[in-house]
Each structure stands twice: as C-alpha cells, then as structure tokens.
Design brief:
single chain, 72 residues, mainly alpha, 2 helices, 61% helix, elongated
C-alpha cells in the first residue's frame, strides 16, 4: 500500500454513503473517480519505481502507433 492509497478508501466510503442515502448518480460518479485515482496512483508508482531502477526522464505513454500512417 502506498502513501496515496488512503484516498481510495475515502472515495469508497463516500460511495457507500451516497448509495445508502439515495444518491445514485453521485455514487456512480465516485466509482468513476475511484478508477481515475487508482490509475493516477499506479502511474506515480511506476514513475517512482523507474527512478529507483535508474531510469531517468519522463516515461512516455505507448500510443500504439497513433498519428502514424500505416499501410497494409
């Protein structure tokens, strides 16, 4: 568990409260928010691990050839 994982617990608690109190749209939004938070935390963890492994510079996302012209 990283030092930022606490926010996932807070979001889960808020979602539970929203669901229990008839705030369905809010509960759904908090579910989406939790997914975004988890992805960002994982990204930060990957960057920190890369620094520990001696990799310098910013990690670039794999865009899967996005923006490149490909021919069959």
């Amino acid at each position: 568990m990283t030092h930022n994982d606490w926010i996932l617990d807070v979001l889960a608690d808020l979602k539970s409260f929203a669901s229990a109190n008839g705030l369905g749209a809010l509960a759904e939004q908090l579910d989406d928010t939790k997914l975004i938070a988890a992805a960002e935390i994982a990204s930060q963890n990957e960057k920190a691990q890369a620094r520990l492994n001696g990799e310098h510079g910013q990690l670039e996302p794999d865009l899967g050839g996005l923006g490149r012209h490909q021919r069959a």
